[in-house]
Amino acid sequence: MAPSPCALCHTNRALILRPKNHQKLCKPCFINTFEAEIHHIITANKLFHRGERIAIGASGGKDSTVLASVLKTLNERYDYGVELVLLSIDEGIKGYRDDSLETVKRNAQQYNMPLTILGYSELYGWTMDQVVEQVGKKGNCTYCGVFRRQALDRGAAKLGVQHVVTGHNADDVAETVLMNLLRGDLPRLSRTTSIVTSTPSAVANAESGVPNHTNIKRSKPLKYAYEKEIVLYAHHKQLDYFSTECIYSPEAFRGSARALIKNLERVRPSAILDVVKSGEDMARLIPGSDERCGTGGCATNTTEEAGGCGSSQGRSTGGEMADMEKRLQQNDNAADHGLEVEITTMKTPRKKNAPKKATHASTQVPRKAVNQTMGQCTRCGYLSSQNVCKACTLLEGLNKSRPKASIGQVDAEDDETSTSHLSNTMNQVGISGD
C-alpha cells in the first residue's frame, strides 16, 4: 500500500494521525497546525495585552513545558509584546518534585526565561511528604490542590505579575466537568470551564497596572488541546520534560474521571471536546456565572477555526441532521409495516377512599443556585468566598493533628498560632489582609 500524503500540504508523507479528528499530517504541518490553533485561542479570547508580564506555572511536565515553548515561539512570531517568566511550586515530594524541578531549571536556560521557585515549607510550614505522613494517602490531593492554587497566586504576587497561565488541557477540563457533575457541584462549572478564571475587577486592575495581589488573573491557552497531541508536539519538537506521575495521585478521585474520558475517546475522538462544550453550556445556565467567569467568560465559538467544539471535528454538522431525518423516516416506514410493537403500561387501580398521592411536580422543592460572593479571608487576607479560606482551615486541622477538620470549624483562640506562618509569608510577598 502506498504511503498516505499529508492532508494539508499534499506533498510530504503523513506520519501523524491527529487524535482530535484523525487527520493525517506530516510533521511540519502538525507542528504548524498545533501552534496556529493555540495562537487562535489566544487572540480570539484576548488573553494577553502588550506590555504584560506573564508567569507560566511550570512543573516540568509535558503540559507546562509545551506551554512555555509554544508561548515563546508565538510571542516571537506574532509579536505579542509580553514578558514571560517561569514560576514553579515545590510541594516537597521527594523522588518526584525535586527531580521535576531539575527539568524546570533546564527549561529556564533553554527558553532564556527567569525562574522563581516557591515551596510549601516556606509558605505553610508543611511539605506534602509531611502532610501525607499525617493524613495518609486518602484525601491528600485536597490539601495539595488548595495549597498549590494559592501558592501560584502568592508566587505571582512575589514576582509582581497579575497574570498566571497554566498548562491545563482539554482532557483536564473534561475530567473536571465530569467530577463536578458526579459531585453535583454545578456552580463550580463556571470557573472550571472558563478559559479566564478571575473577576472583572482583577482583569481591569491587570490591564491598568494597578496592583491587586489577592486577585490574580488565570488563563488556560491549552484548554482545547488534546493531551495526546501535546505529547506528540513535545516528542516531535524534542522538548525536555519530566514524565513521571505524582507518587500520591493514584488515590485521587480524578483518576476515575480520567479513565472514563479515555474510554469515551476510544469510541468517539471528539468526546473530550464535546464534554468541555457541554460543561460550558451548562455553566451559562447557572445564575451569576458571568461574574464568576470574568471578562474572558466561558469561551463561545472560539474553536471553530481550530477544530474545536463548534467545528465539524468536535461538535455536529449539517450531515448529522440529514442522517437523523433518514433514520426517522426508516422508523416511520417500519411502523407502517407492523414491524414495531408499542409497549404500554397498565395503571394500578386506586383503592376506594385512598388518598391521592401528591404529584412529583407539587412535592419537588426547587434547588436554589448558589451565588458565591468573593471576599477576603479574615486570617490571611487571601481572596475567598468564606470567612476563613480553605488553606487556613486545612492548616488548622494539620496543626491540631485533626486533618479532617471541616471548613469553618476552627477555634478562635488558636487563630494566631495556626496561621501565623501563613500570614507572615503573605505579608512578605505583598498580600495584605486589610
Automatic annotation (TrEMBL):
Keyword terms, alphabetized: Cytoplasm, RNA-binding, Transferase, tRNA processing, tRNA-binding
| Keyword Hydrolase in record | no
Entry's EC annotation: 2.7.7.-
Which pathway is recorded for this entry?
A: tRNA modification; 5-methoxycarbonylmethyl-2-thiouridine-tRNA biosynthesis
Gene3D superfamilies recorded: HUPs (3.40.50.620)
In terms of superkingdom, the source organism counts as: Eukaryota
Class of the enzyme per the UniProt entry, highest EC level = transferase
Assigned protein family: Belongs to the TtcA family. CTU1/NCS6/ATPBD3 subfamily.
Per UniProt, subcellular location reads as:
Cytoplasm
Could you tell me which species this protein originates from? Answer: Aulographum hederae CBS 113979
Extent of Polar residues compositional bias: 419-434
Q: Name one GO cellular component term.
A: cytosolic tRNA wobble base thiouridylase complex
Q: What is its main location?
A: cytoplasm
> Which is a Pfam family this sequence falls into?
zn-ribbon_14
What GO terms in the biological process aspect are recorded for it?
A: protein urmylation; tRNA wobble position uridine thiolation
Record's protein name:
Cytoplasmic tRNA 2-thiolation protein 1
Which residues does the UniProt record annotate as the domain tRNA(Ile)-lysidine/2-thiocytidine synthase N-terminal? 54-245
* Domain Cytoplasmic tRNA 2-thiolation protein 1 C-terminal, residue spans: 375-405
The record's listing under InterPro entries reads: CTU1-like_ATP-bd, CTU1_C, Ncs6/Tuc1/Ctu1, Rossmann-like_a/b/a_fold, TilS/TtcA_N, UPF0021_CS
Q: Which PANTHER family match?
A: ATPASES OF THE PP SUPERFAMILY-RELATED, CYTOPLASMIC TRNA 2-THIOLATION PROTEIN 1
Decide whether keyword Cytoplasm is in the record. yes
GO terms assigned for molecular function: nucleotidyltransferase activity; tRNA binding
Region entry Disordered, spans: 404-434
Briefly state the protein's biological role: Plays a central role in 2-thiolation of mcm(5)S(2)U at tRNA wobble positions of tRNA(Lys), tRNA(Glu) and tRNA(Gln). Directly binds tRNAs and probably acts by catalyzing adenylation of tRNAs, an intermediate required for 2-thiolation. It is unclear whether it acts as a sulfurtransferase that transfers sulfur from thiocarboxylated URM1 onto the uridine of tRNAs at wobble position. Prior mcm(5) tRNA modification by the elongator complex is required for 2-thiolation. May also be involved in protein urmylation.
